[in-house]
Amino acid sequence: MAAAELPSEFDVVILGTGLVESIVAAACSRVGHRVLHLDPRSYYAGKWASFTFSGLLSLIEEHNSPRPPAEPLRDWSKLLLEGEDLICLSTRDSAPITNLQVFDYTSEVKIVEAPDTTEGVAEATDTTEEVADHQGPEVEDKEEKAAAGGGGEEKADEPRPLSAQSQSERSRKRISYAHLLREGRRFNIDLVSKLMYSRGPLVDLLIKSNVSRYAEFKNVTRILTYHHGNIQQVPCSRADVFSSKQLSVVEKRMLMRFLTSCLEQETTQDYQDFSERPYLEFLQHHQLTDNLQHFLLHSIAMATTATSTQEALTSTRHFLSCLGRYGNTPFLFPLYGLGEIPQCFCRMCAVFGGIYCLRHSLEALVVDSATKRCTAVIDSQGQRISCSHVVLEDGCLDEAPPTRLMSRAVLITDVSLLPSDSEQQVSMVTVPIEGQSVRLVELSSSSMTSIPGTHLVHMTCQSSGSAHQDLSPLVTRLFRSQDCGHHDQRPSVLWCVYFNMADSAGFQVRDVVSNVWLCPGPDSSLGHQQAVTQAELIFQKILPDEEFCPPAPNPEDILYDTSPAPQEEGEESETNTSPQEEAGTSPARQEEAGTSPARQEEEAGTSPARQEEEAGTSPARQEEEAGTSPARQEEEAGTSPARQEEEAGTSPARQEEAGTSPARQEEEAGTSPARQEEEAGTSPAPQEEAGTSPAPQEEAGTSPATQEEAGTSPAPQEEAGTSPAPQEEAGTSPAPQEEAGTSPAPQEEAGTSPAPQEEAGTSPAPQEEEAETDPSPREEEEQLDKES
């Protein structure tokens, strides 16, 4: 974010992106506080950073270049209010490294060793020059000329992949400095060398806060030690102990017995007698062999000869408790270097609203004179930013230089210290030297910190002088120098750098004013216990009532608010819903949701009908099975009405066949209603001829519509109990009404209109056709009498 866009108020302002500062930023942002995270550098992680090879060369060049003169202090009094004081912060460049020395061993060495090659092999010359004296293009030109004139030589800047053969049979090719420059972006070189205990505080914090999903980790595959002039593998787990070829059977039993007893040493008399005495004396008291004493003291307890028994046994128990969680060793290493861990916490802070700004610093703190609290900060752009708390990295105040230092060396080598069939090893090596242990971490290309065909070696120890003075004798002992013959199979150093760093071991968090805290830098220990502990302590002072780094939700667990937006005042809902519908208890809503009682009973199989059907206890099924149903009894006894009619010949079907059905008898006797209507001249057709059709009734004002207007419609008659329906019940047939000139409308109301007859299967149309096509002699005589 650009400086001009920075808000003017935050809850917490943090300067520096080291591990401690990043953890505090993530913890504060996670619980909902507004965080502004600044760093004066152009990269993250500060003294905990990882650099590419090109980036490290830029840092070295910047360190060696003369520093510009200090800028005069700017006047910030115009930004102060009444009753406020100003505390200026240090503007000097807090360089993370000192006593820097760089050596390059690749500029003029171009050799290829192969069993079948006898020509074109150049002798190695001892060259130790600083990297500032070598320019990449010049070295590349020299190597191209040498490769062109070498005949049988391969190009020096094309490394040959290592095989799984023994070291003496391998074809070892020197990697040029130009090749390192070309592939420099694939290196990730840490300023601080540390490992992560699998049950340590940092791993627990990464798991608890879900920050571990932002990084990948690799198990340290083996633990090595330097003993009797050789690199040996230390058996750690039970399987390693019993498969080790370096220990006898007796030593294996002694080692397993001692490691088992370490968990109970606090209750024994031996432990109480030796708790304040050196750990080495405690091991000698148990009559352990020299090999076992070396393994337990330097590689498992990671102690020195002066370490007390109590401290060493605590380290041993921690070592044993971490075994087996992620592999045979207790350590993990993050891919792409330790600089990834601070960036992971910065990413978590940004996810929850933290604002980041690199190349941006703080110039001063604004302190209230009465309360002695920092109320605001002034940044490098002259902007005043109000805040409640401030966290500063180490070196922001003008203080005396640190008195405790650690010596560091970073080497790029061609092969591993202990070659094996796998080129994917990550090793931790301990080397006792001059009353202390030097810790080496060897990283292969599988850790994403070096290019294939090379290894990255980190060396760390407490300083007694410059880093070159402390560590160069060990480099000479473990690695091959250029004047050695070809029979020397030790790894060759391609490039190395020595430097010193401040060691913050024993640092105590302190406040500059009541709400401003100073964070420590890295220490020389192997783990991250101090950094995590100090970060949690600062967070508890800022927010004592909040949880430290609570778990961040997974993306699939986030619930998005899908409820409709609240209606503004004056707006009415388009649809009115009953309280039952709002509560989701209406029958329709229950049916949609699948929670209606009937559906629940059906799904659960508890409805009465289903239970009776499954249990076979329904009445119909019992009667059917027992043969006692009425239909079955009548059928078996032959007493069913249908069967009796059929046997007696009185069923409608049998009567139709026999010609004795009532309809046929009436037709033959001339007493059917249709025939009587024709004879009496009251059928619908004659009425129409006589002018009594429904249309003339309407003209006469006697239509149903007119009757309704006059208040004499049939409906009131029905209410009064004089509707035609009771007349039918009383035996009054419609025929006299037709003779009296009554229109068919009341017949329709009484249920005797032609339409209901058609529905009943006795429509008058077929009857009229039969009457016209089949006249009887009697009807003809009556018709002649009427005409005369």
Report on this structure.
With 788 residues, the protein is α+β, with helices and mostly antiparallel strands. The protein is 37% helix and 15% strand. The protein is built from 34 helices and 25 strands. The strands form 6 sheets. The chain has an 8-stranded mixed β-sheet with strand order 5-23-19-22-21-20-11-12, sandwiched between helices. A 6-stranded mixed β-sheet has the order 14-2-1-18-25-24, with helices on one face. Strands 4-15-16-17 form a 4-stranded antiparallel β-sheet, with no helix packed on it. β16 (374-379) and β17 form a beta hairpin. α1 (19-30) runs parallel beside α12, α1 (19-30) crosses α14 (529-542) and α9 (279-285) crosses α11 (309-322). It starts with 11 loop residues before the first strand and ends with a helix. The model is unreliable at 108-171, 570-586 and 681-773 (pLDDT under 50).
